[in-house]
Each structure stands twice: as structure tokens, then as C-alpha cells.
Design a protein that fits this description.
- This protein is α/β, with parallel strands linked by helices.
- The chain has one domain (5-283): Ribonuclease Z/Hydroxyacylglutathione hydrolase-like (Metallo-beta-lactamase, Chain A, 4-Layer Sandwich), CATH 3.60.15.
- Helix content is 21%, strand content 33%.
- The protein is built from eight helices and 16 strands.
- It has helices at 27-31, 35-38, 43-46, 94-100, 145-154, 168-173, 224-228, 239-256; strands at residues 5-10, 13-25, 50-61, 64-68, 110-112, 125-128, 131-134, 140-144, 177-180, 184-187, 190-194, 203-209, 212-216, 259-261, 268-274, 277-283.
- The protein has a seven-stranded mixed sheet with strand order 1-2-3-4-5-8-9. It has a five-stranded mixed sheet with strand order 10-11-12-13-14, with no helix packed on it.
- The chain is globular.
- The structure holds zinc ion (ZN).
- The site of zinc ion has 6 residues, from loops.
- Zinc ion (ZN) binds at residues 117, 119-120, 219, 263-264.
Length: 285
Amino acid sequence: MSEYVQHFPLGEATISIISIGDLRWDQQEALGVPESEWRPRYTASFEQPLQIPIQMVHIAAPGVSLLVDVGVYDYPASWADTLLIPGYTPPPGLMERLGEMGVQPEDISQVVITHAHTDHFNGATRLEGGRYVPTFPHARYYLSRADWDALDASGWLQRPDAPASHTLVPLAEQGALELVDGDYELGQGIRLVSAPGETPGHQLVRVESAGQVLYCLGDLYHHPVEVEQPTWMQVGIDRDATIRTRAAFAETALTEDALLIATHIPGLGRLTRTPEGVAWVTVNP
Ligand SMILES: [Zn+2]
């Protein structure tokens, strides 16, 4: 098994974590936390930039072949100075990995976009005969209405150079996009859970099978330090909403003893209570 792909059972479902490559993550820049607060406890993860993965999740369950987020390792030039690693070559992409698993594009029944940040949706369409069409022709794509409205209000849907204009917009025009308000049942024990903060309509995917619970967290946390320090978050996002969402989620995850996959934290995890609060622990599938 590749280090970039992990599979494990969750009740009757099979979960696959597929990394499409790493980004550069400079926590000093990203979180904007004063040095006096991160030193000395978090020196190792703040003093130099980290490499963090971009992980998509595939959920196979009876009657379901669902993807959580759909990215390709192809980013705007503006990312070069901040998020890209000089000289980095990414591993095989999502489509190759699905192919290795025997999953064809036609097989995917649902695609959930946790939030409208480029790394989570830029693989939603592909070019065919000069026109953008859904990468997964039979899938319903689920995005929160709040994220769509925010992109629309900021003009990002209309800008030809913006990823949304050749992914989310064609999905909507071709009738493949479902805009979701709040929590939403997808059936088969799978539910979208509203988790605003990172974006106005950021959403989690909750999967329950045979008593086991998994949450796909999107960018609720980018790194385990944000679990321990829930007031630390990416500069510029909605602070109050993030703190509220994280507090409620941590209680739920602990109560449910849930397994967790965050897009940018490698592999599988769980939350655990500590004397100071909550921490992330890595779990071996
Ligand atoms: Zn992200």
C-alpha cells in the first residue's frame, strides 16, 4: 500500500484516504500567533515551514461511492510564494488512485465539497472538447449555499481566471450541483453537518456504520496545534464562528469516540481529553 493511500473498514463501509500531494504550511504566517505564545511549546511546528498533505476521502458503502472533496494538484500562480514547495513533484492524482482501486468516474454517486477553497474543489470538472464537464458524470455534487453565495458576492464565480468559474459554475449550469442549507441527510448513514468558520458554509461529513462514527473534517483544523489551541486559526477567517464550531464539535467527537480525517492532517485521528483541554491523536487504521 502506498504511503499516500490508506484504506480501512468502518462498519460495512470502506474508507480510503487519498493524498494528492503536499503544500507548504508556514504556521507563523498562516496563524499569525505571536512568537511569545508559540515558543517554546510549539517551536518544532512554528520555527520552520511544514509540509502538509491534501487528502481526499472515498467512502464505499452499499449503494454509495462518495468522494469528500475533489482536488487536482494544479494551483494558481499566486500560490507559488506561499503554499507551494519549490521543486516538489506530487504523487499520482485522485483519478489514478481511484482507478487503482477499481473505481471508475461513472461509479461515483456523490461528491461533497466541504468548502469553497480551491484545493477542495478544483478537480470537480474536466475539459472535454473545449468545454468543462463534471469529472464524475453521474454524481450529485454538494456544496453549501452559504459558500456559493459568498463566492458570488465576491465576484469569484464570474472571474474567468478563478477556479470556481470553470468548476462550480459549469456544475451548476449542467444541473449537477446541489446547494445545501445547513445539515443535510445523504442517506446510508451519511450526513452533512454545518460547521461554519473556515468559510461561511464549511461542512463536515459524518458517516455512521455498525455503530462506528467517522467525520471528514475538511479544514476545521489544519494542524493538531489548532485542536489544542482552538482560538488559533488561519488569519482572516471568521474567528467567533470557528471557536463556536470547534467547541461544539470537540464535545460531539469525544462523546461519539469518533474517528476523524482532516484534509491537511496526515491519516486518521481521534480527539482525546487532556488536563488542559483536547488534543489530536493519530490512529493506525
Ligand atoms: Zn484546505
